[in-house]
Amino acid sequence: MIGTIVALAIVYWYYRDAEAKGRNPLRTAGFGFLFYLIPAVLWTWLVTPSLRDAATHNPTGLYVFVYSYTYILVGIACAAWVKWKHFN
To answer: How does pLDDT run across 49-65, given as a tens digit for each residue?
Structure first.
């Protein structure tokens, strides 16, 4: 649920910025969605299983939080980096 809300916020962010700069807003918003989604999915497939394994051996609240929501932070970081680097 949180990941979906963040994805929609990133799409809105890219859309509004493209509109303000006179670019194609739908295409740019689609790119923003992909720049969030692809790193988040790759993180979930490649890194989360090992984090989940570590969390089962030491089930504190921090480990559970890290393996549950880090993909969102990775997606945000990648989308923000691409926007800063290529869409300014």
So the answer is: 777 777 677 767 677 77
Q: What pLDDT score was predicted for residue 11?
A: 96
Q: Of all helices (H) and strands (E), which one includes residue 48? A: helix 48-57
* Contact in structure between 54 and 23 (CB atoms under 8 Å): no
Q: Please enumerate, as own/partner, the contacts of 15-23 that have beta carbons within 8 Å and a separation of 24 or more.
A: 17/83, 17/87, 18/87
Helices 48-57 and 25-46 meet at what angle, rounded to 10? Answer: 40
pTM: 0.81
CA distance 66 to 73: 10
What is the rounded distance in angstroms from the CA atom of residue 11 to the CA atom of residue 82?
A: 13
**pLDDT per residue over 68-84, tens digit each?**
788 899 999 999 999 99
Range of the domain at 66: 2-86
Count how many domains the chain has.
1
